[in-house]
Design goal:
The chain has ten helices and 14 strands. The longest helix is centred in the middle third of the chain and has 11 residues. Helix content is 31%, strand content 20%. It is of the alpha/beta class. It folds into two domains: 147 residues, HAD superfamily/HAD-like (Rossmann fold), CATH 3.40.50.1000; 104 residues, Rossmann fold, CATH 3.40.50.
Amino acid sequence: MTLLLNSVSEILTQFDVAVLDQYGVLHNGVEAYPNADSALRVLANAGVSMVVVSNSGKRADFNRQRIASRGLTADLITSVVTSGEILWEDFAQETVLSGPGPWKLLSINGAAGDAEAWRAELTSLIFVEEVSEADAVVLMGLPDGDSFDEFTPMLRAAYQRRLPVICSNPDRRSPAPGQFVRSPGNVAAMYEDMGGTVLWYGKPYPRIYEAVRSQFPEVSRDRFLMVGDSVEHDVQGAQGAGFRSLFVRNGIHLSDFEDIPDTEITTVIDSLSTQYEVRPPDYSIAEFG
């Protein structure tokens, strides 16, 4: 059964490393949640190491700067691990695609220039404009829009050539003030439904959690606490990694908990856990604080 908390300080002695989701825990994409920075200070004062883990197609340094720009004390954070960073490292180690590089990639991004900024000094990658030229499709982000239909022709062309699609942001939707925005995970899932091959990077998949754990080889798995707002990604990923989990209710699942009495909170958590085929999280809190 999930233990409901009022503050993360109630369980400080039970873990050594806090693995913090970025969106939905620290900030909503625009501004920090009211108590997030004070929670970072509580953890730091207790000697807890903090790693921010994010399903962001961008590099780790970019996301550390993003965290600071939202008014959070980024210097308290030990490290930032993003799915985009892990993908970059795997390309640098030549473990993503078979055969020798350079590899030609068709990249889908939220904004112009994102792919080039991500690639940086990786000379083994060449970005192309057409599926017919590509060795793989990389989903890093999506431009603003309401429909996924625009991606269907590209996915069909990729499937005809049996290209792998690499998704460095598995999220299906991302929180934004007063709304959710579409995310690359939906497009990658569309490709899987066609029968295509998707290489997933990020939560809940093991690679990103092992990157976190490798920074603290002396810490046992059950002394890591994953703090996240997604049952599908954060809770499932934590359980797969052997980490404990703290589910934050004011993120992506906020609407599930609005206008319900406190006595029904664990019932809703159990229902969400059943929906995503995971065990209920170890702990839950209304917001990170």
